Amino acid sequence: MSKTKPAFMRRVIAVGLCAAIGLGVVTAGQAVSAPKASAATYYNTKIKYGVNLRVSASAGSGVIRMIGKGESVHVVGQANSYWLHVFDQKGNSGYISSSSEYTNYVGGGSSGGGTAPSAGGGGSAKADQVIAIAKSYMGRVSYDYGTRNPSKLIFDCSAFTQFVFAKIGVDLKWGTKSQKTAGSFVSRSNLAKGDLVFFDTIGSNNGVINHVGIYMGNGQVIHDTPSVDGLLISSINSGFWSTHYVTARRVL
């Protein structure tokens, strides 16, 4: 490895970058080009009558857009008996009325005609929602250290986890320093979908946390990282992320 690093990498190491990934870290075994959410998302719930897509499960919350009659959406789950959490085909995440007046949705579970929960996870509706939301931003989010810009979808690692969990009503503080003490400790052998997973990415793993991602089940974590300037799905069972794992917290 060259002793002279690019200016970007020198900055990364100097500031303890959220996901400082050195030369040679992204190996052939890692999913550098992870599949976009659309590859496994089924927009098979049809809108029967124009309905507002809202920011939260409340008639008083902001309107993202009107979803017109004939459009299809992907139902992630039911926030309650009155609201469905959905993704529209423009990539927006929000809530619509669960009334049969508006859609042909007939499910009662959290999958809503979408992908089945991953094996090895907690299986809760909120965990499935967190993962679905995170995956919906594949290819759309950019990475920048010390940045939290939801309007332009530019985040560092902990800003992205904060952004995702806020969409289901879980309040996380910005920064791995705060998130590493949120919720409760969970051992590596008991990881469940939706857990926050923390890493030490600078040099050898001495347990100094500087990066965070969201556990998806099946040994996979989704995280915002400078190595691909955006979201990456990586394995924690082998390769770099396996050896740089530090701890996990359960916040759901």
UniProtKB/TrEMBL annotation:
<keyword id="KW-0788">Thiol protease</keyword>
<dbReference type="InterPro" id="IPR051202">
    <property type="entry name" value="Peptidase_C40"/>
</dbReference>
<dbReference type="InterPro" id="IPR003646">
    <property type="entry name" value="SH3-like_bac-type"/>
</dbReference>
<comment type="similarity">
    <text>Belongs to the peptidase C40 family.</text>
</comment>
<keyword id="KW-0645">Protease</keyword>
<keyword id="KW-0732">Signal</keyword>
<keyword id="KW-0378">Hydrolase</keyword>
<feature type="signal peptide">
    <location>
        <begin position="1"/>
        <end position="28"/>
    </location>
</feature>
<feature type="domain" description="NlpC/P60">
    <location>
        <begin position="124"/>
        <end position="252"/>
    </location>
</feature>
<dbReference type="Pfam" id="PF00877">
    <property type="entry name" value="NLPC_P60"/>
</dbReference>
<dbReference type="Pfam" id="PF08239">
    <property type="entry name" value="SH3_3"/>
</dbReference>
<dbReference type="InterPro" id="IPR038765">
    <property type="entry name" value="Papain-like_cys_pep_sf"/>
</dbReference>
<dbReference type="InterPro" id="IPR000064">
    <property type="entry name" value="NLP_P60_dom"/>
</dbReference>
<protein>
    <submittedName>
        <fullName>SH3 domain-containing C40 family peptidase</fullName>
    </submittedName>
</protein>
